[in-house]
Specification:
By secondary structure, the protein is mainly α. Helix content is 68%, strand content 2%.
Length: 290
């Protein structure tokens, strides 16, 4: 789960930043495989009763671990933690097992945290990497404000342009706005505390930082998308309604310090401003365009 996002990030950056253009065919294949994952950003494969039964019996009957590309029996402690992670994140039981295996491999880089706490960090880090991957693609596309790198071959830019267009056409903006709207730390923290998913102050801070960075990155994706090409009317109205609804929340909860417009909302606001056509104002001020 975490490794999948990390590998995709390495591939995207390898091609567009590292200039490994010979990997373009691989990038095309991986992006096409991950189209729905980008479209339903941050959505996890759900819990599954069949998977849960297999995992619960996996101390006696080996189960297929795709991450390891082999079948393996699990220790009772791993089974217990996998079910807990599955319940916590409403995550597929087999993905929860993979997350724990990845956490066990990465524990050496998270000194002082056990396997479960490391798995929580990797879960939120995987989300950050996923949204950052989308942001990178948004920055690579051609448009009116910037060119990321003039040396990137035209066929790569063309493919990414069409890829982003497909995402936007299929409702990406609405889905990202919805994620921003429900991405609240207080709710996540309550669930984590309930299952002892937060460790010491250092662990809590790292988890919270990752969680909040995800929300900011979602806003940056909207901003980068609108900067390079104005959103069509339907999506522009979605931005207006999103900001309107959040402004009303602030006005209705003036005494609640936890309700406030945050950084992600300001990125949405700036995205909205880039959607407005100011040509009429130029014409009105100067009489005509030269």
């Amino acid at each position: 789960m975490w490794s999948t996002q990390k590998n995709l990030s390495n591939l995207i950056n390898g091609v567009v930043v590292g200039k490994k253009y010979d990997l373009f065919a691989t990038l095309q294949e991986e992006l096409n495989k991950n189209f729905l994952n980008f479209l339903d950003i941050l959505k996890d494969p759900p819990c599954d009763s069949v998977e849960r039964t297999k995992v619960k019996k996996s101390n006696e009957e080996a189960i297929q671990i795709n991450y390891l590309n082999c079948e393996k029996k699990l220790q009772p402690s791993v089974i217990e933690e996998a079910i807990a992670l599955s319940d916590l994140f409403s995550l597929s039981e087999l993905k929860s097992v993979e997350l724990l295996i990845e956490a066990e491999e990465q524990m050496q880089y998270f000194h002082g945290f056990n396997r479960g706490l490391t798995a929580v960090l990797l879960y939120y880090d995987s989300k950050k990497i996923q949204v950052n991957n989308l942001k990178t693609l948004m920055l690579v596309r051609s448009g009116r404000l910037w060119i990321l790198d003039e040396n990137i071959p035209a066929e790569i830019i063309s493919f990414i342009d069409l890829y982003i267009q497909r995402l936007v056409k299929n409702g990406l903006i609405e889905k990202v706005l919805a994620r921003i709207g429900i991405h609240e730390w207080s709710k996540a923290e309550e669930n984590l505390v309930r299952v002892n998913g937060l460790g010491n102050l250092k662990h809590r801070k790292q988890v919270k930082n990752l969680f909040e960075e995800v929300k900011v990155l979602l806003g940056e994706c909207i901003f980068a998308c609108a900067c390079q090409a104005p959103l069509e009317q339907t999506n522009t109205i979605l931005l207006i309604n999103f900001l309107k609804n959040n402004s009303q929340m602030v006005q209705n909860n003036q005494l609640d310090s936890q309700i406030n417009l945050d950084t992600s909302h300001f990125f949405v606001l700036m995205a909205l401003l880039y959607c407005f056509d100011t040509l009429y104002l130029d014409i009105k001020e100067h009489g005509k365009l030269t």
